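can u do me a favor
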């Protein structure tokens, strides 16, 4: 039996990859991505579950995946095929430097877009140019070139949103200092949500008050700081229930819950069902 490999993975010493795929790897896998990706559907359609939200992804749709997204593809048509450009979290961090965090939140909440014919043609051409650079292994500046092309694409998308969207989506009362704090907060949550679930911990790490941190998070996302932390934990619990045979007690231990019962109450509070019922339902 041939093993299906993750098409969005990075090979050794590379910061990006390109290719075609039917995303079959993600049929039986639902985990948090170490990489990000720009994906264009060439034909067919599929159901994608991104951070527990289900989407229909079909021909002439584009998908922007931020690093850290939980991706699952439970089903797709026989002719489903995408062209993709995957990039490391480090490359994305460099390319997205100075782009407002509100725009990143907008990308996170609206990952899939239906493109008109011209937009689809432009994205396909952009991906082909990325592919050309990827294959030019002798180019000593290829990572810098790709970073600049990704940054340019982000800036063009940001400009388009500013032109055609309600700017209140992107310009809340936050300033550059608040954006910096929010970015650092999300980085810390990504590192420590498994053992630290209280806002006070993150506020202390950032040397600000809990109230100020909560205000910043609400300004940027409309959600509470505690809500974001708990959401990360719930996504991780669901991923472990879906993709591993760890018992609920073992998951509780891994995520530093006092015991299985505490995890069960936490999970039920946020999902309306027990971990055991959730596992039986999806298997």
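np, heres the sequence
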């Amino acid at each position: 039996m041939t093993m299906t490999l993750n098409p969005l993975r990075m090979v050794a010493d590379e910061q990006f990859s390109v290719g075609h795929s039917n995303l079959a790897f993600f049929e039986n896998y639902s985990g948090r991505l170490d990489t990000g990706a720009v994906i264009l559907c060439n034909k067919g359609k599929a159901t994608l579950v991104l951070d527990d939200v289900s989407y229909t992804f079909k021909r002439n749709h584009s998908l922007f995946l931020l690093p850290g997204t939980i991706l699952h593809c439970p089903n797709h048509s026989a002719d489903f095929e995408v062209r993709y450009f995957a990039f490391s979290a480090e490359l994305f961090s460099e390319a997205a430097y100075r782009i407002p965090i509100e725009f990143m939140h907008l990308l996170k909440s609206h990952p899939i877009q239906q493109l008109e014919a011209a937009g689809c043609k432009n994205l396909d051409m952009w991906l082909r140019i990325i592919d050309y650079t990827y294959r030019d292994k002798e180019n000593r500046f290829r990572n810098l070139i790709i970073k600049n092309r990704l940054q340019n694409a982000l800036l063009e998308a940001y400009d388009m949103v500013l032109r055609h969207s309600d700017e209140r989506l992107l310009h809340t009362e936050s300033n550059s200092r608040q954006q910096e704090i929010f970015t650092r907060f999300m980085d810390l949550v990504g590192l420590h949500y498994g053992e630290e679930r209280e806002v006070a911990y993150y506020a202390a790490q950032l040397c600000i008050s809990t109230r100020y941190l909560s205000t910043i998070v609400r300004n940027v996302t409309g959600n509470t700081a505690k809500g974001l932390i708990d959401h990360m934990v719930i996504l991780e619990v669901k991923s472990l229930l879906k993709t591993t045979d760890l018992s609920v007690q073992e998951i509780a231990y891994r995520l530093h819950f006092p015991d299985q019962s505490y995890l069960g109450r936490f999970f039920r509070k946020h999902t309306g069902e027990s971990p055991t019922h959730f596992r039986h339902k999806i298997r």
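The chain has eleven helices and nine strands. hope that helps!!
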